[in-house]
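Researcher: Structure for this, please.
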Amino acid sequence: MLDQVCQLARNAGDAIMQVYDGTKPMDVVSKADNSPVTAADIAAHTVIMDGLRTLTPDIPVLSEEDPPGWEVRQHWQRYWLVDPLDGTKEFIKRNGEFTVNIALIDHGKPILGVVYAPVMNVMYSAAEGKAWKEECGVRKQIQVRDARPPLVVISRSHADAELKEYLQQLGRTSDHVHRLFAEILPGGGRTGAAVPALRTNEYLGHRRWTCCGRSCRSARSRLAG
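Model: Predicted structure, C-alpha cell format:
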C-alpha cells in the first residue's frame, strides 16, 4: 500500500504545482483562524481524499482542509491523517518550502508515513520498520542516525516570542536555526519536512497535521511542541 500512497502524494503535488507555476489561479482566502488557504490546498485535498477513499474505503480520513468534528472521530482506531499542503505561507511566497503529508494512524500511532516535496521532487516514505528517500527516480533506503550536536528546527512563518525565548534558553537563535535549511530538506510552513530529518532532534511549533507524515516510527525525528 505504501507505493500507492506515494503515488497519491505525487498526484497531489502535481495539482499543487499547477497553481504554483501559475497555470491555475492561487485564490488565497483566510480560514476562521486567519490562516491562509489556497486553491492548491483544496486541489491537493480533493486528490488525496478521492484516492484514499478508493484505496481504503473503510478507513476514515482526517484532513486539515475538512476535519470532521470530535464527536465523529473520537472513536476512530485507524484513520488517515493528512495535510494536503503543509506550508501554505511558504507556498504563497513561492520559496518551495512546502510538502504533502500523509500518514496512516493505528491506535494513536503512525504506522505508515509519506512526505513529498513537489518543487524538489523528493519523496520520503516509511512503513514496517523501514524508510526510503526517492529522488530523481532513484529510491534508496535510509537509516536513522543521531545528530551531533543536536539540531533544533523552527518554521520561517511560525516563530513567535515564546519560541524565540526557548531558543535563547537553548543557546540558539532563529538566524542560526534558519541556516540549517542548507542541510535539511526545507520544511512546510511548520517546517518539519525535515522528515527524515532524522537529523533533527527537536521541531518546535508543530501541529497534528505537521507531524502526520513525518513521525512514522520507522524513521523519525523527535518532535517537541
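Researcher: Any notable elements?
Model: The radius of gyration is 17 Å. The chain is about 30% helix and 25% strand.
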